[in-house]
């Protein structure tokens, strides 16, 4: 051991120890507090950052759930609008069909009325022509029969007998 301590003097050793203790004392008095404050401040900054990150994460989850809710609401509204549009379309088609059916039935009724009117007019015209022809035929027959005096007398007697029977 003497070989190890042979080069070191006791005074130098004590002086170095005193300087070391003084250095520790000075560091404790002037540097230790700022270093600890810096470490504590850094620790607090990290805690605040973690807390902020946690809050941001929660806020992102809330925003995500809000967005999902908004999307669901938008989809529901879109579906409702599409359903309403389909119902309006079907109503318009049904209304158009009903209107077309009513218009068709009205046209059919008008056509039937026009046909009936034409039929009645044709029947009246036919009756008129038949009666006119009947009168012409009767006139010709009567002329033939009345052209002769004996025929006239027979005809008058026959008509008188027919009148008496009725």
UniProtKB/TrEMBL annotation:
Keyword annotations: ATP synthesis, Cell membrane, CF(0), Coiled coil, Hydrogen ion transport, Ion transport, Membrane, Transmembrane, Transmembrane helix, Transport
SUPFAM superfamilies in the record: F1F0 ATP synthase subunit B, membrane domain
Gene Ontology CC: one annotated term: plasma membrane
Keyword ATP-binding tagged: no
Taxonomy, superkingdom: Bacteria
Primary location group: membrane
Subcellular location: Cell membrane; Endomembrane system
Coiled-coil stretches noted in the UniProt entry, renumbered to this chain: 36-91
Transmembrane residue ranges: 6-27
Role summary: Component of the F(0) channel, it forms part of the peripheral stalk, linking F(1) to F(0). The b'-subunit is a diverged and duplicated form of b found in plants and photosynthetic bacteria. F(1)F(0) ATP synthase produces ATP from ADP in the presence of a proton or sodium gradient. F-type ATPases consist of two structural domains, F(1) containing the extramembraneous catalytic core and F(0) containing the membrane proton channel, linked together by a central stalk and a peripheral stalk. During catalysis, ATP synthesis in the catalytic domain of F(1) is coupled via a rotary mechanism of the central stalk subunits to proton translocation.
Subunit structure: F-type ATPases have 2 components, F(1) - the catalytic core - and F(0) - the membrane proton channel. F(1) has five subunits: alpha(3), beta(3), gamma(1), delta(1), epsilon(1). F(0) has four main subunits: a(1), b(2) and c(10-14). The alpha and beta chains form an alternating ring which encloses part of the gamma chain. F(1) is attached to F(0) by a central stalk formed by the gamma and epsilon chains, while a peripheral stalk is formed by the delta and b chains. F-type ATPases have 2 components, F(1) - the catalytic core - and F(0) - the membrane proton channel. F(1) has five subunits: alpha(3), beta(3), gamma(1), delta(1), epsilon(1). F(0) has three main subunits: a(1), b(2) and c(10-14). The alpha and beta chains form an alternating ring which encloses part of the gamma chain. F(1) is attached to F(0) by a central stalk formed by the gamma and epsilon chains, while a peripheral stalk is formed by the delta and b chains.
Name of the molecule in the record: ATP synthase subunit b
Source organism (scientific name): Flavobacterium aciduliphilum
């Amino acid at each position: 051991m003497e070989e190890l301590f042979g080069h070191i003097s006791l005074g130098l050793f004590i002086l170095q120890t005193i300087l070391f203790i003084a250095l520790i004392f000075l560091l404790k008095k002037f540097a230790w507090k700022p270093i600890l404050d810096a470490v504590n401040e850094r620790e607090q900054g990290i805690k605040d950052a973690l807390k902020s990150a946690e809050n941001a994460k929660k806020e992102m989850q809330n925003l995500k759930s809000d967005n999902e809710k908004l999307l669901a609401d938008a989809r529901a509204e879109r579906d409702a609008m599409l359903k309403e549009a389909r119902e309006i379309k079907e109503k318009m088609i049904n209304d158009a069909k009903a209107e077309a059916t009513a218009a068709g039935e009205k046209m059919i009724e008008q056509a039937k009325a026009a046909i009936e009117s034409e039929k009645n007019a044709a029947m009246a015209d036919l009756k008129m022509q038949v009666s006119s022809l009947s009168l012409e035929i009767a006139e010709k027959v009567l002329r033939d029969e009345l052209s002769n005096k004996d025929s006239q007398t027979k005809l008058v007697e026959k008509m008188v007998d027919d009148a008496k029977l009725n």
